[in-house]
Amino acid sequence: MGITQPAFSRSIQGLEQEFGCVLIDRGSKDLRPTPEGHVVLHHALNILKDANQLTREVAQMTKLDAGELHFGCGPAPAVKLVPDAVAGFAAAYPGVRVRFETSNWEKLSRSLNREEIEFFVADIRHFESDPNFHTQPLTPRRGVFFCRPGHPLLSKTNLSPDDIFDYPLASAMLPPGARKRLAATSGRLDFALAIQTDDFSSLAKIVRNTDAVGMSTEEHYEQDILPGSLVRLRFRNFPGEQPGGSAIFGIISRAGFRLSPAARAMIDIIVGLDKSHCAA
Question: What is the DSSP letter of 256?
Answer without folding.
Answer: T
